[in-house]
Request: fold
Amino acid sequence: MTILSQLNSPAMYLICGGVIAVVALICVVFMIRAYRAGLAIGMDATKMRRVIISSTTFTILPAVGILLGVIALSGALGTPLPWLRLSVIGALHYETQVAQGAAESVGLSGLNATEMTATAFSTITLVMSACIMGGILMSIFFTKRYTKRLGSSDSKSGGVAGGFGDKAMTAMFIGLVSAYVGNYVGQLVSGEGLFTFAGSWTPIAVMAVAAIAMAVFLYLAEKKQAAWVENFSIAGSMLCGMIAAVLIG
Reply:
C-alpha cells in the first residue's frame, strides 16, 4: 500500500470527518440559538432570513478558493487532512505555505507525493497543527484585554490599535510574498552567467498573472464601488493563476 493510499484510507476519512461533523453541528446549534435570540429581542424574522440567504450566497464563491487549496494539498497529503485543516481552523495562505516549508525542512523538494514518507507527513502535520495554535492561545488569554484597549484607543485617537493591526498584517504578508518572490527569482537566475537562466519562468509568470487579477478585483471594489467583488478576489486570483500555470506550463 502506498503512502498516498494510506493517507486516503477510510480510517483517515472517519477521523477527520468526525471532527468536521462535530464542528458543523456546533455551527448549526449556534445559528439556531442566534436566530432565536434575534426573535426574542424583537428582530424582524424576514430580515434575518434574508441575511441568512445572502450570507450563504456570498460564501459559495469564496469557498472555491478553499476547495482549490484542498485539491492542491491533497496530491501530496491526501484528501482527509487538508479537508479537515481548511474546514475547521486553517487558512488557505497559511496551510499551503507552512506545509511547503515543513516539507522542504525534512528534505523533500516540495509537496510531492512521490517523495512523501510517513515521517515527512507526520512532521508536516505536526508543524501545521502546532503553529496554528498560536492564534487560539492568543485569543484565549489576550482577546479580552485587547478588546478593551481597542475600544479606548478608538474613542481617544480614532482607532490607533486597529490601524496598527492592519499595518502589521500588511507588513507580514509583504514579507511572505517577498520571500517567495526572492526564492523564485533566485532559482531563475542561478546560472553561472549574468543572463544565464537555469530555472523556470513559470512561477514568476503565474505570480504576475495572479497579482494583476487581484489588482483588477481591488480596482473594481474600491474605485467602482463594487464592494461585493472583494469577497471573490482571493478565489478569482487563484483561478487566474492556476489557469496561467496550465497554459504556460
Observations:
- Residues 148 and 154 are 10 Å apart (CA to CA).
